[in-house]
Design brief:
This protein has about 400 residues and is of the alpha/beta class. The protein is about 40% helix and about 20% strand. The relative contact order is 0.16. It binds pyridoxal-5'-phosphate. It catalyses: N(2)-acetyl-L-ornithine + 2-oxoglutarate = N-acetyl-L-glutamate 5-semialdehyde + L-glutamate.
């Protein structure tokens, strides 16, 4: 029996070290990592520039608290603002915490502007915003809320894509709208860029705030630094985490000056958020992502991968219904003849690591640094896994 909370249905695999897109178990067997620790290790494992940055900071100072200035924070905040719509940044340790900051900020902004009644956020069905009490209420999924008492009030859930429904749901108490540009956990569901533009226009019209949860989609995952850049509209508030620290726990809430400046001293805080180790790694991740041509290469490589996957889907239409997603946030939607969990296991048996998502989807989230050789290897492993599950799938659909 394990001494851990039984919160996860873990595989039996355990890894000792990693190198680029590969993980090695204790027997020296290697696995191609197309899960990236759920979209976290954006630059793969043991990236020399990240290792160097962490080691160098470890020799200087690890932690000082936010009672003092942290130069690495100021630098990373300035660079994130330079690369985005934002003027202000709050650092946290995770995606849920980044969203907590975003939710508090949306309420506080209206409070500071004489509208303390504006506390409610419109959120979308199938969303995922984290596992704290506020963020499970924001996600609104019954399976995450069950057994944890009355959900935190203040969230109204609507189907994504229906702008008329959103317009009708805005009241005097609405503070803003929170949305993931691509629903990752929800099954790699792309939100129509036109809908994001309609939300922007509605928020401007009503004087409410648009929040993009880019915890999974941000930091180059879709081929742009932030997924909303594909839509041409910017939010007022954005949460980041996952790829931001490349594997070091790091989250951030970004906002415009008008909004972010309402979080005055004492309104929010975090003991660990933005500590020097996290900042050293975060700055190092950004060094690589902002290199000339890096994101263009991600887009091109990802497009070729998606085309390869589409061909595999056509060949195995008994197993796959659709290839979804953008950049290296890709999903294989399975037919009803097979469960995504079984396919993830079959892929792991071929030494390809992937991640389940909602809507019977298998997520492919390779590190952004992968090249053609790894894509070839992954496609071969997917084909091989298809051969092993095909008889069962054929029997199920017969
Ligand atoms: C993973 C995720 C979160 C939660 O992040 P944690 O670091 O697990 O708290 C929030 N929002 C989105 C969109 C995510 O993908």
């Amino acid at each position: 029996m394990s001494a851990l909370f039984p919160t996860y249905a873990r595989s039996a695999l355990s890894f000792e070290r990693g190198e680029g897109a590969w993980l090695f178990d204790e027997n020296g067997e290697r696995y191609l990592d197309f899960g990236s620790g759920v979209a976290v290790t954006a630059l793969g494992h043991s990236h020399p520039h990240l290792v160097e940055a962490l080691k160098a900071q470890a020799d200087k100072v690890w932690h000082v608290s936010n009672l003092h200035r942290i130069p690495g924070q100021e630098r990373l905040a300035e660079r994130l603002c330079e690369a985005s719509f934002a003027d202000r940044v709050f650092f946290a340790n995770s995606g849920a915490e980044a969203n907590e900051a975003a939710i508090k900020l949306a309420r506080r902004y209206h409070y500071a502007n004489g509208h303390p009644e504006r506390t409610r956020l419109i959120a979308f069905e199938g969303a995922f915003h984290g596992r704290t009490l506020a963020t499970i209420a924001a996600g609104g999924q019954a399976k995450h809320l069950e057994g944890f008492g009355e959900p935190m009030p203040g969230f109204d859930h609507l189907p994504a894509g229906d702008i008329e429904a959103v317009k009708a749901a805005v009241t005097e108490e609405t503070a803003g709208i929170i949305v993931e540009p691509v629903m990752g956990e929800g099954g790699v569901r792309l939100i129509d860029p036109g809908f994001l533009r309609d939300l922007r226009a509605l928020c401007d019209d009503k004087g409410i705030l648009l929040i993009f949860d880019e915890v999974q989609t941000g930091m180059g995952r879709t081929g742009r630094l932030f997924a909303h850049k594909w839509s041409g509209v910017s939010p007022d508030i954005m949460s980041l985490a996952k790829g931001l620290g490349g594997g070091f726990p790091l989250g951030a809430c970004l906002a415009t000056e008008e909004v972010g400046s309402t979080m005055t001293p004492g309104t929010h805080g975090s003991t660990f958020g933005g500590n020097p180790l996290a900042m050293a790694v975060g700055n190092a991740v950004l060094d690589v992502l902002l290199e000339d041509g890096f994101l263009e290469r991600v887009s091109e490589t990802a497009l070729r991968f998606k085309q390869r996957l589409a061909a595999i889907k056509d060949e195995h239409s008994d197993i796959f219904e659709e290839v979804r997603g953008q950049g290296f946030l890709l999903g294989l939607k399975c037919t009803s003849s097979i469960s995504n969990g079984d396919l993830v296991k079959a892929l792991a048996a071929q030494h390809l690591l992937t991640v389940q998502a909602g809507d019977n989807v298998v997520r492919l989230l390779p590190p952004l640094i992968i090249g053609e050789a790894e894509i070839d290897a992954a496609c071969e492993k997917i084909e091989a896994a298809c051969e092993t599950v095909a008889p069962a799938a054929a029997a199920a659909s017969a």
